[in-house]
Amino acid sequence: MKPHIPPLKIAKPTSNLSVSTSPDDTKYIPDRFYSAHGQSEITPPLTPQGARDIMEQTEAPRAVFHNYLRAFYPFHPAGDVSPSTVTLPLDQGDIILVHSVHTNGWADGTLLDSGNRGWLPTNYCEAYDQLPMRPLLKALTDFWDIIRGGCGSSLKDFGNQDLMRGPIAGVRFLLEKSECLTREAPLVRKYDGLRRIRKALLSDLSSLVKTAKRFQEVANGTPEEDEVEGILDEMLLKAFKIVTRGVRFLDVWNEEVGLSRTIVELEQPMSDNQSLYDMPPTPASETFTLAETAPYSDTTERNDSRQMSRSRMDFSRASMRTEMLDHQPRPVSVSTKRISVSHRVSYSGPSAAICAENLASERLGTTYDAFLGVLGSFIGLHMQSRSSTELVTTTQQAVQSCRSLLTVVEAVCEHDTQRSAFLEQARESMCEKLSELVHAARDVFRPAHLPDDDLVFMPDEGKRLVDAATDCVRAAGNCLAKARLVLEQIGDIELEPSENEAPSEDVPGLITPQPQPETIPNSTYSPSTPGLTDSTTPSSFHSHLTSHSPANLSALSSLPSSAIMPTHLEGTSFSSTDSANRISHTKSEMGESFGRGVTSTGSSFTYNSHTRDSEMSGVSQTSTRATSPDIGGSFQVPSLKESVSHSTLAEENEETEANILEKTYAHELIYKEGQVMGGSLRALIEKLTAHQSTPDAMFVSTFYLTFRLFATPVEFAEALAERFDYIGDTPHAAGPVRLRVYNVFKGWLESHWRHDRDNSALEFIVEFAKTRLATDLPTASKRILDLAEKVSAVHGPVVPRLVSSMGKTNTATAQYIHPDTPLPPAILAKKETNLLKQWKNGEASISILDFDPMELARQLTIKESRIFCSILPEELLDTEWTRKSGSLAVNVRAMSTLSTDLAHLVADSILCLEEPKKRAVTIKHWVKIANKCLELNNYDSLMAIICSLNSSMISRLKRTWDIVSQKTKVTLEHLRGIVDVSRNYAVLRQRLQNHVPPCLPFVGTYLTDLTFVDHGNQSLRNLPTDDGEMAVINFDKHMKTARIISELQRFQIPYRLTEVPELQTWMQNELVRVRSNGETTAQVFYRRSLVLEPREPSRTATNMQPEANTSILDNAKDKFDFLSWSNNSKAKSVATNG
Amino acid sequence: MRPQREYHIVVLGAAQFVQNVWIESYDPTIEDSYRKQIEVDGRQCILEILDTAGTEQFTAMRELYMKQGQGFLLVFSITSMSSLNELSELREQITRIKDDEKVPLVIVGNKSDLEEDRAVPRARAFGLSQSWGNAPYYETSARRRANVNEVFVDLCRQIIRKDLQGSGGGDPSRKREGPNRHDRKRESRRQNSRRRPCVIL
């Protein structure tokens, strides 16, 4: 499996070697020349012999370092070529990736054809830097650098799709520049050679993408070194192949098109390009070709091809538009696949050359695509709970398309009986899956037999259906892969033409063979069936592919019965009939009655899912339309989306083709280690609504949370609407992407609407929902309008938002306490209750000593937790809480106020006492309370209490501390170690890292971190572009912010403790009392402290001493040593031990 | 080779002085975000920096920070007079807690890149620094990384000097020696360094 590419692992020569011109370097070169072994591979051989070479050598050292060279002269060194040959034999036209160029004209390079690496004479080569190839070449260079220069640690990043963007974009660019972007491009049609190479190029690309996918899977498991290396090598080779193919493509293009262009240009200098844009958007290919070839010149290739590509886009857009109009209103769920399929059909009209379609491989691909398309609608059907009529027809379609796929597979089998055992197996398993699918479908219909004829949609059955469909897709993918493999081995085969002409108009749907009477005859649909009535819908496409010629009938009948048995749907009401008309009649009736039932249940079903909260579900919902749920991106969960895209990408040029066609701003994103670091607003929005992958939850949360920092709400809404529009150019993606756009709007309105900021965008959103959204997704439009109405009427989130929707996934680990578990009873005896009553009546004064430390800690915790839990994320953005006036961060402010008040209360309760002994008792009590706070994981209160006990006004009370018991001091020391500020709160951070809620973290660390992220990171990033640089949003900054906020939100879970209102009142009263001293509180306390225990004359000196004497080693210990009592040796030993 | 010294530095004040602005992305939990190695007069010093940015409202916390520090950066923004005024209270608290009038500290006027928004005349800030026993005054731009290193070197030098004095019995007159000339030199250095971003570490 591992490809033979030995020299790939040669260490890259260090730069100083490659530029070395020292005399030693040259003196032993002569005898080493061309010798195959023993020579250092990093020193290049001397100039190739021959007068000509020497003469030309002068031009070898180039000022510009070219990454790619192309041999224009064959270079075959004498002797055999062995794997360890230092020199690299070249054929004319070979492309070489250059790693370094020696001053003597030899270059260390890798031959893209073979992947071999060695030295080659640069004077045999010319720099290869064709403009249309540039992005692709650059992508390969990057690819090389990542794989060969990368470190193993970030292996996972290699496999993700982003890595594939480079090559995909490169190929796209090449095709765009050469006006061959679509298969139906006039040039592609006209020049067969071009078409073939284009196809090969795309197949190379899809092969690379497939390998990348595989790599991703491997990397996500527990990869073995060898395996990873093997796949990486494979990927590299495939990337090489793409480039080689691209070069060849360009060669052919230049030959075929470029030349004629030049001639035309000479004859006819200028023609009206404008006419192209004004052309009616009919995809009448012939006329287009004629009109097109004329105005283009080769001399100004760059400009022209730009114009060309523009007109190309217009063309496709225009035709898209007509298509869309034709199909309105179309069902949401199935739009994705159907559009993509119909798109192809509309382009490759009946006149298109179909000869290639008889090739087994081609037919394999098309039938497979059709099958997937149908299964896609299957999933869509389930999720949307659409009419059962559709379900019936889709089931049939599935069977049909599966059968046609199996036909091809069968044919392949027949051609090669020796090796196709595994193919046989794959086919059989596919049959099984299909059978399961049909059974599942039938079960869904079973309720139709109930007397009242009302169909009850059964979610369980629906799930089974989806599962079955998922299995089917997987089996089909497997089957296809196996078939391809066989084909690769035995070579492509030509099948009999599958085709009768396109179906007549009045039978627009499937016209499939009825090889066996008991099979469900698939016939027509009732015209009311949405989306399937049009002749450009997949139905017609299927009919293109589905074989019903006699020849294929025989092929079909040779299928094992298992493939056909499952299609029995007679269990349902439409039992077998031989009259197609009758069936269609029956069915439309059935469809109507079913339809009604389903629609009602369906709508409530969707409503339920709509009201689910959090963007997690919002996102997954989108994905479930086209796919199956894959919340959290877990790879273990077999998701249909993955298997679809996997197998599709794996084997489908179509998909690659579609990828190429997609309009994208992906180049405006900055990645680092697989993470989006920055990007323009539209690029980020594109990422947010990507159709291939569910955006990760953190990305979505970050968007909702922080977008107001980089865009106004109106800009955000407009960008979303723009995305909604331009994705229309990419039919295969339009469906899911538009749903995602809708979901973003929905999530925003439902749970992330900020009335203070976002109301300005409401008008735009309503307008958007009424117009563009209503055209494409009427239900979605309605939902948005409903929400918009609610948003303007309600103050506060429409759907009650769990404050922390982001961090909530982590809280799954929270201790689960059954809601019925009784709260711990308050530790409050009659005596205390009475005291509180008396205090209320002004009859008695009470102090903290009157209450149990645990109960006080609990009440403190309740009080604080209540504020903490109500902190809103927006309070934490943009250092809002530091704003001097009008700060929105009321709860953050309340936290700091409470914390300060508590610290003052501690000081006050100690300093109000005249006798040292009483003060010592109070200190002891506070230490106990602090310890209980720790037990309750209330770090915030703990921090405040310890701060106060450590403050100079308390810690300087030497006489008091002398009376405090050793035990208390040890406890205090322990607590102090926890809230230690050194190493940026390392201890505290460590504790909180994997802390299980309920917990009250110290808010200060979050605030500091947020401040640093906010001030320490620029809001823009520079993105190098073709023409200079462009400043894009530094999304990483916002991701970091969101991550910190979600950390905090993780703890926003209330405690389960019994509140004692009387005690709360007293505490609140106390806190307010100490606050009334205002700004000067600290000074007042300090003065009181001085009165209680006046300064000792020697104090200054003794205090200076330890600090001044601090040796380097003691320093770390001494930083804990700031309590006065700790200066005495006994305490100190405790301090260092604890 | 002389042993490395490690000092605790506390950054206080209203204006955030992000000394780590050159780190492409700030991660508070990694050591680099709060530790810094600098060379002071040929000696390698490790500084552990406690920046209290964002927690100004937790006034009760301040003492905890202050006790931690051996040297202090009192930062204000040259665009805000009130931020300068707030330093007095901080300084008072520091001297009270340290029980020392000559705590190593540096006054930092940050955001010097926003000259056009300047609200604190240089003379005013300089006057304040002189009234505080000739504490050094720097103007920096954390954003442009201007003068940031100098601030830390100066502070570190003060701490080292204090260390030596502590063991050597103290020299009360040290602060008297030619402070004006010293500061003028600093002033001019500041002018220069505002144009060239200083490279730290």
TrEMBL record, chain A:
Biological process annotations from GO: Ras protein signal transduction
Keyword Cell inner membrane recorded: no
Top-level taxonomy: Eukaryota, Fungi, Dikarya, Ascomycota, Pezizomycotina
Spans annotated as Disordered: 1-22, 294-313, 496-550, 609-637
Record PANTHER family: BUD SITE SELECTION PROTEIN 5, GUANINE NUCLEOTIDE EXCHANGE FACTOR
Domain (SH3): residue spans on this chain: 64-130
Organism superkingdom: Eukaryota
Protein name stated in the entry: Guanine-nucleotide dissociation stimulator CDC25
Limits of the Ras-GEF domain: 852-1095
GO molecular function: guanyl-nucleotide exchange factor activity
UniProt-listed SMART domains: RasGEF, RasGEFN, SH3
Species: Penicillium alfredii
Automatic annotation (TrEMBL), chain B:
Region annotation Disordered: where it falls in the sequence: 163-201
EC number(s) reported in the record: 3.6.5.2
InterPro entries named among the record's database cross-references: P-loop_NTPase, Small_GTP-bd, Small_GTPase, Small_GTPase_Ras-type
GO MF terms held by the record: G protein activity; GTP binding
Biased composition (Basic and acidic residues): 172-190
Biased composition (Basic residues): 191-201
Protein species of origin: Penicillium alfredii
Membrane topology listed for this record: Lipid-anchor
Signal peptide limits: none
Record keyword Nucleotidyltransferase present: no
Main location group: membrane
One of the GO BP terms on file: signal transduction
Entry keyword set: Cell membrane, GTP-binding, Hydrolase, Lipoprotein, Membrane, Methylation, Nucleotide-binding, Prenylation
Pfam families, per database record: Ras (PF00071)
Broadest EC class assigned to this enzyme: hydrolase
Alphabetized SUPFAM superfamilies for the sequence: P-loop containing nucleoside triphosphate hydrolases
Lineage: Eukaryota, Fungi, Dikarya, Ascomycota, Pezizomycotina
Protein name per Swiss-Prot or TrEMBL: Ras-related protein RSR1
Catalytic activity: GTP + H2O = GDP + phosphate + H(+)
Family: Belongs to the small GTPase superfamily. Ras family.
Localization: Cell membrane
Domain of life (superkingdom): Eukaryota
